[in-house]
Design goal:
This protein is of the alpha+beta class. The chain has 9 helices and 20 strands. It is globular.
């Protein structure tokens, strides 16, 4: 099935909403206590039972292109080191030397070995301890028992998935389920990583709520995202905990009265692929894609988002570079200066006790779905079910 055939039924659903002045709806409204955004005990439980347990998309495959590539990051308090070895496989480890726990790497790069900056113990890309400084004076030790602590890891759909608890395992195909097919259509492994940056924001729930609905686009983003996107019109599909969201572009009405065989649906809708709990992939303008990976910070009221700009190919001409820079500037303004500025104001009100609850409308089914899955996974042992 080509892209047009995949997008045609989504554009048809969006146009039907435009004609009827409707949107996809939940059965009822849903109330969420503000304590769900502030309570420390609840936050710690969600870190333990959601963030440190389910497979998380921690990197794009393109960030680890070629043997020796590595990426270091910290997620939910866990230091992680991702490496690609000479066999082509990506592996994940706790980013801590087995001697005294010093981190081996920061940021991204390429290296055949990873030497500890404290006492020079060195590990290869498979996590094996390959050298110990002053080994003859250190005392009896079994190198095979001192490899880096491995984390469950798999690569699918141009993404590297990692669970943050050592010793476990996961089935990434079961985790993605039927979401794997629409995710694979994005062919993320073919895209060029143009730019990557970190953005500090409000608590992870306040921040993520903004990624899941288009109700606010016309009011909060009139000169950025909302300039070309219809507000309060959304088509949604769920795949277990994951979701695909479709917004209508303001050009959607041009399809009225036009035979479907003449439609180019990709010009009139905008897709968001949202992988639970922290990945959003948004194709907004032609040859550019925004990938957002959100992570909780050390406090319930703060988060960090890794924002990655992808281009179809490395920009070469002045026009291509200008287009990439314009897209990067647009997404920074929309997220940091609009969404997160509003989110931080909301967070201050919640932290100060001015708000006792939130209400999610019927026109926000994606928010309801997301929060129900957070509750489901944090309150009961259901990970691994077949959805």
């Amino acid at each position: 099935m080509d892209a047009r055939e995949r997008l045609l039924p989504l554009a048809r659903r969006a146009l039907a909403h435009l004609e009827a002045d409707t949107t996809d709806l939940a059965p009822a409204t849903m109330r969420m206590p503000a304590s769900a955004y502030t309570d420390r005990a609840r936050y710690e439980r969600e870190l333990a039972r959601v963030w440190r347990r389910v497979p998380l998309a921690l990197a794009l495959s393109g960030e680890l292109a070629g043997a020796g590539a590595y990426k270091a990051l910290r997620v939910a308090g866990v230091p992680v080191l991702l490496t690609r070895a000479e066999d082509g496989a990506v592996r994940a480890f706790v980013n801590a030397c087995r001697h005294r726990g010093a981190p081996l790497r920061e940021g991204c790069g390429r290296a055949a070995k990873h030497a500890c900056p404290y006492h020079a113990w060195a590990y290869d890309a498979r996590g094996t301890l390959v050298a110990m400084y002053g080994e003859h004076t250190f005392g009896a030790s079994d190198r095979s028992a001192l490899s880096l602590t491995a984390l469950p890891c798999a690569e699918r759909a141009g993404l590297v998935w990692v669970a943050l608890t050592p010793g476990g395992a996961f089935d990434v195909d079961a985790w993605l389920g039927s979401f794997a097919a629409p995710l694979a259509t994005l062919a993320l492994e073919r895209w060029h990583v143009y730019l990557q940056r970190e953005i500090e924001g409000p608590g992870w729930k306040v921040a993520w709520d903004g990624y899941l609905e288009g109700y606010h686009q016309g009011t909060l983003h009139p000169q950025t995202v909302g300039k070309n996107t219809l507000s309060n019109l959304m088509v949604t599909d769920t795949f277990g905990p994951h979701q695909r969201i479709v917004f209508g572009r303001k050009s959607l009405g041009q399809l009225r009265g036009v035979p479907e065989r003449e439609w180019n649906p990709g010009e009139h809708i905008r897709l968001i692929h949202s992988a639970f709990p922290n990945l959003s992939i948004s194709g907004i303008l032609g040859d550019h894609v925004l990938v957002s990976q959100l992570y909780p910070a050390s406090e319930p009221n703060r988060s960090v988002t890794v924002q990655t700009i992808l281009t179809e190919r490395a920009p070469e001409t002045p026009e291509q570079k200008q287009a990439a820079e314009a897209f990067a500037a647009l997404t920074l303004q929309a997220v940091r200066d609009e969404d997160y500025a509003m989110g931080l104001a909301i967070q201050r009100g919640v932290d100060g006790g001015a708000v006792d609850s939130f209400v999610f409308g019927r026109n926000e089914p994606t928010l309801q779905h997301y929060h129900r899955w957070v509750d489901k996974l944090s309150e009961g042992d259901v990970y691994g079910e077949k959805w």
